[in-house]
Amino acid sequence: MKHEDAFKRLKNIEGHIGGIIRMMDNDVYCIDIIRQIQAVQAALNRVSSIILEQHLDTCLTTAVRGEDVDERERVLKEIAEVFETATRT
Amino acid sequence: MKHEDAFKRLKNIEGHIGGIIRMMDNDVYCIDIIRQIQAVQAALNRVSSIILEQHLDTCLTTAVRGEDVDERERVLKEIAEVFETATRT
Amino acid sequence: MKHEDAFKRLKNIEGHIGGIIRMMDNDVYCIDIIRQIQAVQAALNRVSSIILEQHLDTCLTTAVRGEDVDERERVLKEIAEVFETATRT
Amino acid sequence: MKHEDAFKRLKNIEGHIGGIIRMMDNDVYCIDIIRQIQAVQAALNRVSSIILEQHLDTCLTTAVRGEDVDERERVLKEIAEVFETATRT
User: Fold this and answer.
1) What residue numbers bound the domain in which A17 lies?
2) pLDDT digits over B13-67, tens only?
3) Closest to C43 measured CA to CA, from C8, C78, C80
4) How many structural domains does chain C have?
5) Residue C29: how many other CB atoms lie within 10 Å
6) N or C of chain C: less Cβ packing under 10 Å?
């Protein structure tokens, strides 16, 4: 499987969210819940970066080296879009 | 239960993460996975904001209006800390 | 003057932006410009945090301990708003 | 000049920072200063995105289509790095 590292990290994040839900069920202190959410966010940032890195080395490289100009433009535009969203979230 | 809205949103986010894991299992295109992760991040931002808002109206207000100076300082310091982390994630 | 530390940092940031403008004028490599912009963003995050911390200890504490309920609500709402914006930028 | 749009935006941002410095000098309300800093941050995000987009269409495309494997790897690694930093600031 590709992305094995990212896959495992996402499984951990799913468990982490489950833990935060139980914390809320047990009326844990709000700030501790916010801190856990922020930890999940940092973990998700890492997953995005890992997936992007693999994408650049595979799909993007293939598309940019290929002769299909539309495909090349599409793939570059996608990178610009996810970068712009990353700066905003 | 307090935080009912935030609680429901977190349950949805847990399901959303499960969906992303299945996408990865099915070798969905990397950029579509990154976009879903970014959608989860936006949803988590919203949950943090909801919880913080309730915290300000309850715990923080009680602490700041109270006479325990240490408690007051602790609660204000926590807000500064989660704000600083929010600017970085 | 209040906020002296934040003030000095902002003056430095202004100079930093001036430096980036000169880099662009000299056709410096795009990625190096993006890195400098990201350094400015980190510096601005720090300034916001410093100002917020002082605000919590002064204006917010006064308002929350005061008897004007509207004022109290307004001040708490502002914190929630800048926190939400911080999660998005 | 390349990047003319980004260049003009950075000049405006420099002026915006100057305005925030004057606000601090005049003891403007803390929250209004934080809001202006957040507006600058959003504007800087936009500049980064514009520069990245041009970089992808020019330098990155040239490097990835070229035969220098080290250069290609370096350019892809840079994109991964600025993306990861973008998720954290």
Assistant:
1) 4-88
2) 999 999 999 999 999 999 999 999 999 999 999 999 999 999 999 999 999 999 9
3) C8
4) 1
5) 12
6) N
Q: How far is CA B17 from CA A17, A63, B10, B88, C54, in A?
A: 9, 29, 10, 22, 38
**Least CB–CB distance from C54: residue in D20, D30, D38:** D30
State the SS3 of chain B: CCCHHHHHHHHHHHHHHHHHHHHHHCCCCHHHHHHHHHHHHHHHHHHHHHHHHHHHHHHHHHHHHCCCHHHHHHHHHHHHHHHHHHHHC
CB contact under 8 A, A56 and D72: no
3-class SS shares of chain C: helix, strand, coil, % to 5: 90, 0, 10
List CB contacts of A15: < 8 A, sequence separation 6 or more. Answer: none
- Is C80 at the interface with chain A, CB within 8 A? no
Nearest residue of chain A to residue C84 (CA atoms): A89
> What element of type H or E holds D59?
none
Determine, for residues D38 and C89 on separate chains, whether the beta-carbon distance falls below 8 Å: yes
- pLDDT tens digit sequence for C35-86: 999 999 999 999 999 999 999 999 999 999 999 999 999 999 999 999 999 9
Q: How many CB pairs under 8 A join B and D?
A: 5
Interface membership of A21 toward B (CB under 8 Å): yes
Asked if ipTM goes beyond 0.90, one says yes
Question: Are the beta carbons of B76 and C57 separated by less than 8 Å?
Answer: yes
CATH number, position B13 = 1.20.58.1000
Q: Are A6 and A51 in contact, with CB atoms under 8 Å apart?
A: yes
